[in-house]
What we know:
heterodimer, A: 327 residues, 13 helices, 2 strands, 1% strand, disordered N terminus, B: 258 residues, mainly alpha, 11 helices, globular
Amino acid sequence: MYTQALNTSDAEDRHVEDADRAAQFQVRIDAEDRIEPNDWMPAAYRKTLTRQISQHAHSEIVGMLPEGNWITRAPSLRRKAALLAKVQDECGHGLYLYAAAETLGASREELVDLMLAGKAKYSSIFNYPTLTWADIGVIGWLVDGAAIMNQIPLCRCSYGPYARAMIRVCKEESFHQRQGFEIMLTLARGSEEQKAMAQNALDRWWWPVLMMFGPPDKASQHSDNSTKWKIKRFSNDELRQKFVDATVPQAQFLGLTIPDPGMTQNEAGNWQYSTIDWNEFNAVLAGNGPCNRDRLAARRKAHEEGAWVREAALAYAAKRRNRQAAA
Amino acid sequence: MATASISVSETPLVLYLLRRADDALILGHRLSEWCGHAPALEEDMALANMGLDLLGQARELYSYAAKVEGKGNDEDKFAYLRDVRQYRNLLLLEQPNGDFARTMLRQFFYSAFADLYWRAMMKSGDATLAAIAAKSEKESAYHLRHSSEWVVRLGDGTEESHRRAQTAIDDLWALTGEMFEADDSERSLIASGIAVDPATLRSRWLAMISDVVGEATLALPKSDWMQQGGRSGRHSEHLGHLLSELQSMQRTFPGATW
């Protein structure tokens, strides 16, 4: 935030793209080599990763808001401390990911400005509201569970800094996921009111969580190159299926009903879910989810109201440098 | 149906512990309100860190109070089932966050005191308190360093940050005197070597904060009028709102386990 030298990224890739280099690059990818920041890479690879890593970072930061909504109302001191620590972890993930994006030549400020201007995406799941304490349980259990499904394969992503960031992020996410499940378990063993609260939260979050894996394979824009470059190892539908198969027994254990009466188990043991309402997904993506405006407004407010603080820090650092130079 | 507040047997040691626990909980809660809304991600991390330290201190102090009291209360009952008149925290710490300067000045005034206080308390005749003090002192030393650095940056930063920092000092100053007060109940613990007399720390506190405020090109107010009341449950209007949020779940769902 305070680094001015990184404020601009290379508008053009300085490396000449020739077929030989591109072919050598693909050989390295196919041999499961890690690509590091100073290595040659195709401009499109850089662009794809910058977009993906920054969207991931924005998701961590915007994702602080729905859960942050319950920090001041957490129902016990133990839960309050755990939730505050969890949201703080997400902030740490965001910082770590912005740093990974910076290794590709994009500055954090540039990327954040794009997000605040509504030009960069973040995960749509954070455009849904947290209405009750049970939502905090469901977010940990399912939203973090889905994120882990997506991110475990990213630990083997071809781009070194991103892969390494994911290893650390996944460790913390699986802790959050267990914490969320434990909140759900406590509710499921609680009063009728608490059980109803848990079921209602599952009803509201189930379908948006399935949408987290992205459009169905036949409609996904980015997968082809991402697969070729070993950024993406599994398709959206494969990951979604893995997630559903892992989650159904957990819901059964909790005594909760997944809000999909048409769901059946096939002979291979996979749980087949009903058709996802992609109209809802597209509407939220287009800015028309229940909280899109609130989320962006909150981030913009923090950014704008913090401007004088960041300016003061820079002004003080400059004064100090000048004094040291004069001394 | 709302859950009735608990009653507390405020023996000198229980009252003493609740006062310190309430300080830590209320300031920790205020800091946690920043989470997701700070001026920079690094500050989101730092404010949450300090908030977590303080929540940890509160939990230890409440648990010890519960043990000393021996009436079946616990950390959550103390936090969630006492009303505003039963809270014993300093007025300074319940003040709303305001802008970042106000949050940092509040932190600075308190941490400078807490650091001296917990360091002195490491010699308490009560072994549990001495152990809590040793842990809390390490934490408050970091809180003091972090907030001092910001006071200097803000005071000696831009015209706007200087003005905001000075306004925060002027607004909060009258709430700092309460930190150094002790009533009869606390004096009995001071006499028996369990607690330290906070009044003995005031000159060192003043010297410490004067240094930082001077480096920040800011000034301490001349006025020596000091507001009191938090320690005996006469709070500002702000605390009731904080508690209605903090306690909403426990008051709405009586007796539930979360």
